[in-house]
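Reminder: ligand-aware prediction takes two inputs, not one.
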Amino acid sequence: MIESYRLQPINFTPDTPKEFVLLSIIAQSFFQPFSLEDNLLVILTALTSGAGVGFNRAMLFLREGERLKATMWLGPRSPEEAQAIWTMLSSPGLGYAEVVEHNRELISRTQEKLKLQLKIFNYNLEDEKSILPALAAQRKEIILVKDAFSEPLLDRRFLDFLQVDSFLCLPLLAHNEIMGEIVVDNAITRAPISLKDIELASLCALLAGNYIYTTNLYKKVVEMEKMAALGEMAAFISHQLRNPIVAIGGFTQQLLTNPCNPERCHRNLGIIQEEIKHLEAIIYQLSHFLKIKIKELIPIEIGPILKKILERPDIKNKSEGKTISLRIMDNPPPILCDPVYFEEAIVNLLDNALDVTPAGGRVYVRAYSIRKNWLMILIKDSGPGLDDKAKEKLFSPFYTTKENGIGLGLLFVKRVMEMCSGKIEVQSKPGHGTIFKLYFKIPERRGI
Ligand SMILES: Nc1ncnc2c1ncn2[C@@H]1O[C@H](COP(=O)(O)OP(=O)(O)OP(=O)(O)O)[C@@H](O)[C@H]1O
Ligand SMILES: [Mg+2]
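Here is what comes back for the chain with adenosine-5'-triphosphate:
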């Protein structure tokens, strides 16, 4: 026997256990592409909304180095403001998303002024004589403050700001490391903070601490990846530039120190010129690749561009002794791309195909539509083909097996295809040549 249920958003009723409401709200927000700030706002909202824990106000502190800094404060500033907000939020049909949206708007409206006020709540976590609110984070303990006005372990400025007799300090921890702290209170309703409130709030704190931890970790990984890519690029560029520069230096030195016969001078100058051309090519390709950005996709006719490419001097030179066979379907539909980048992408693929095709061999170029909305351009060579390992490396930046290659050609083609919302596929087997397939979107024809 089987039972089936439809996947649908959970509807909360007044009887739904609050732990369940909290967990589902926070879990849903964590899987959205929200920023750290937005997700922390969701947690503060969960702590302060009636559907969640139901505190009146919540203040968030984040750890920066060894300091704990107040960064966000959510909640009504006065009983009148509270009344207005609660009336608005209790309107029928208002969901949790609207509450978060309302709070986001509230934060952005009050942010500037609040920032200045919150700035003074900045505590050293290494301080031996720490006071509340930082004490809770430092001790890694939840602290409930009662009779705040007579509590000696409390920062007076903080109390002057909160103006409340009782509040709860929740450290945000992950892997036993301090990530921040949340302070909640019931300044408007004056409702006592119960054990149940503390349990629910600690659940939110646990999630917030781990969320900050994973977000920081993710940021670090992205940063490391960027640094690794930068390092790889710097190593490649210096490696590529070193050989021509050393050659130019050596031959120039020879010209300056040894008076040489005109023939030798001429030969040296020729080598220097060649090396400079090579340097120019590297710099051109690099700057060209880094600059690529398509402003607007326009419908383009592929036929004339493909025919023009075969007439280009660079392609003609390269294809000497080889054949390029071009076949395009009748009346090919226009595709969405940028004409200049389209031409360069095809030239890059042809350039590679001609490099591997032996004298007397053929390169095939075909263009035809696939189903209703795709046009495919195929470039097949008669080269040696590639094994799986080589195929995996094709689109890696600076991967090249050629003496004068830069290893950016295929990456360029891939980026152009991504920008045209198309795709690129490779089929290859050792001994059977290689096929590159480019799929372009055909724009919908309106009014036909
Ligand atoms: N059609 C092909 N058949 C076999 N190997 C290929 C083919 N196309 C590319 N490759 C391999 O992939 C590598 C990367 O190609 P890519 O076009 O990115 O750089 P490149 O041709 O080496 O240099 P450049 O930046 O000047 O284009 C080539 O060096 C080659 O080893
Ligand atoms: Mg290439």
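The pocket of magnesium ion (ligand 2) is lined by residues 348, 351-352, 409 (CB under 6 Å). The two ends are 52 Å apart (CA to CA). We will return to this case in the review session.
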